Amino acid sequence: MEKSNQNDVFIVGFVRGSHGISGEFKVESTSGEYEHFTQMKEVTLRNGRTGEQKSFSVEYAEVGGRDLYMKLKGIDNPELVQKYSKWEIIVPREFACPLYENEWYVEDLKNCALVYEGKDGLADNTAPIKVGTITDVMEGGSGNLLEVHLAEDCDCLSDSIKYDSNGKVRTVYVPLKDQFIGKVDVKNKIIQLMHLWILE
């Protein structure tokens, strides 16, 4: 999954070590895919800590085995590669890794309402109830986790589930797996929760 801080700009990778003496460098892809880099004509490098950024024309991007090597115009020696080491490589949405079935961009999942429709002891066919809002997607040991800020006004959750020991509304993590998550509708910003007990 590729992340972004803005709706139409995606972090597709990171600058890693220098390769050779011409300013070519190794790329770490955030998605694990590399082919889409070969279509890029321009990228922006951004320092994730300071926000400083600079745009470059792409001279070439070549896949070599399991690695990708990139050369940007104006970065012509290993010393300049070192300056940009660990910087984010960001591009417009159309140059991000293509999505396959049941894949979504992290940015599109953020701010979706997590809704529940009557099961787990509630009457069937009830109107969808908003139980929280997706605030981020995290990498877990067995897959991705939706970070969910619970809805304070949700009547189907007890106070012991909604609030922590300090009385603050809890943030919980729900595995992004079929047994816990049903329909994902990023266009309408709605994600279906299959079971309430996963929020406990």
Please explain how this structure is put together.
- A hairpin with a 2-residue loop joins β9 (129-140) and β10 (143-150).
- It is elongated and about 60 Å long.
- The mean pLDDT is 88.
- The strands form two sheets. It has a six-stranded antiparallel β-barrel with strand order 2-3-6-5-4-7. The protein has a six-stranded mixed sheet with strand order 11-10-9-8-13-12.
- The chain is built from three helices and 13 strands; from the N terminus they run ββββββαβαβββαβββ.
- The longest helix has 6 residues, at 78-83.
- The chain has 200 residues and is mainly beta.
Largest sheet: 6 strands, antiparallel, barrel
Encode the helix/strand succession as letters: EEEEEEHEHEEEHEEE
How big is the Rg? 21 Å
The average pLDDT is 88
**What portion of residues belong to β-strands?**
35-45%
Output the strand order for the largest sheet.
Answer: 2-3-6-5-4-7
Q: Strand tally, please?
A: 13
CA(first)-CA(last) distance:
26 Å
User: By helix and strand content, what is the structural category?
Assistant: mainly beta
Sum up the overall morphology in one term.
Answer: elongated
Number of helices: 3
Q: Detail the poorly predicted runs.
A: none
